[in-house]
Amino acid sequence: MTETMAETSLPPARAVADRTGREESDLEVLVFTASVPAALREVTLHWAGHGRKDDPAVPVDRALDTLRGGLAL
What we know:
The chain is mostly helical. The chain has three helices and no strands.
């Protein structure tokens, strides 16, 4: 499972590395790349758990802002 996850994360890591000028093997690039799908999964669960009332783009933006700015609790 870990091998499959590592392989599927390579294309997004390359894209992030290309856009940021970093190496695709940078830990920060890999952590960010792995965090985006997890954040989107949590947004989906949160949105569905709250009745699917609001535009799902709003919590997606919030989640991406959290990743962009770093997690501050």
